[in-house]
Amino acid sequence: MKDAVVPDELLARIRRFHDHTFPGVQEQFQTLVSEGQHPSILFIGCSDSRLVPYLLTGTGPGDLFLIRNVGAFVPPYDGSTGYHGTSAAIEFAVLNLKVARVIVCGHSHCGGIRALYEEVNPLAKNLAAWLELGREAALPVQVCPEALRRTEQRAVVLQLERLMGYPMVRSQVEAGLMTLHGWHYVIEDGEIHVFDVRSGQFVPASVATHSGHGPYIEHLSEPLFNEIDMAYKLGDNP
Ligand SMILES: [Zn+2]
Q1: Centroid of ligand 1 to alpha carbon of 86 (angstroms)
Q2: Average pLDDT, stretch 60-68?
């Protein structure tokens, strides 16, 4: 077989990791192998390359059980549309790993959300079907930066509500053993806006008093989507 003409930069990188980076963290990884993984957080984030969960949360190996997909979407628990890696990972994280927190993290300039307002490549049949998981968050307005931001945030809340449709999630949340957190990460500012269930709005972390709510807190068990919808329609969202 002929050698590649272009230098294989990727090979150089994985060798560099093994030779230079790994020795510094070897002990940590060996412990994670001997004791197994016990991440306390399930992080469901968009696949976007600019969203870097470890950087955002100051975490490292063994800390986050990660699900990445287009739009940070959650399929319905009883969806019968075939293989769902996202649903399988949610069930595993809750039932086996017994995570204490589930974060759904959308972000600014999300291509998956923008695609809700555009034609999808007819060859991308799976993508077109997948995007339907965000359809309910789309607004009947002309697409503009403000509409996109609102849709990104509405999509996060929509996925949190779907999460509550997973029996193992609902029971853990209602028992107070697990909390849900809705986040919207603004890439250009480096700031996460956390969902506040009481106001139905996303609050910048710099002024927030908590790290985000899900659609359920003890005294408020009804779905909030309509309430949020109302807030957006009234235009009083910051
Ligand atoms: Zn995205």
Answers
A1: 15
A2: 97
Cα–Cα distance list, 233 to 40, 114, 160 (Å): 36, 20, 21
Between the CA of 162 and the centroid of ligand 1 the distance, in Å, is 18
Res. 226 pLDDT band, cuts 50 70 90: very low
Write down the pTM of the prediction.
0.88
Ordered structural domains, the chain, with CATH:
32-234 (3.40.1050.10)
CA of 46 to the centre of ligand 1 (A): 5
How remote is the CA of residue 33 from the centroid of ligand 1, in Å? 32
Ligand 1 midpoint to CA 95 (Å):
27
